[in-house]
Design brief:
By secondary structure, the protein is α/β, with parallel strands linked by helices. The protein is built from ten helices and nine strands. The strands form three sheets. A five-stranded mixed β-sheet has the order 5-4-3-8-9. The chain has a two-stranded antiparallel sheet with strand order 1-2.
Amino acid sequence: MNSLLEEIKSYKDQFKQNAPAEKQRLMAQATQELRDSGIASGLTVGDQAPMFELPHADGTAVDLKTLLENGPVIVTFYRGGWCPYCNLELRAYQRELAMIQEKGATLVAISPETPDYSLSTKEKNELDFYVLSDVGNNVARQFDIVFDMPDYLIDIYKASGLNVDAHNGNEDWQLPKPATFIIQSDGTISFSDVPSDYTERIDPKTVIEKL
């Protein structure tokens, strides 16, 4: 079984071979602009995590405060089930779920997608952990990881058939960075990874080591 980082490299190599050069250039430009802007840099180690309650894909409400009573919580934000890198990451977390649970931690994945789409993502990837819907990016905004997609990138997505607005149930075309946090029982963030490049992910094994 390949590691998440190996799977991502393989996917990136395919994309470089197959995608039009102009599309690649513009997508790289959007990533660089986001990195240079310094916005949505995310909460960091030592910060208090915002307490939240969000709907799980099965319709039940999941409350961070309650989860923390049982031990640390890994919170990973993903862009949506339409994002191939996100799906690779979610499946990699599924592979490591037993180890996460052995360490007494809970795993929570959050996206701005509507509950119906979150359920599709959960079923498609056969995920046995919490997949929560943060419609409107309200919780992601509290973690300081939300940004507006530039118009030219929206055009590329639409041309590729990626209707992020439909998945998110609104017209704002805002996304969270694919950020990962470890939150300790007292609500303190002990680990924070907030990449500006949506193709960069931290390996779940590394996150487990940080527990």
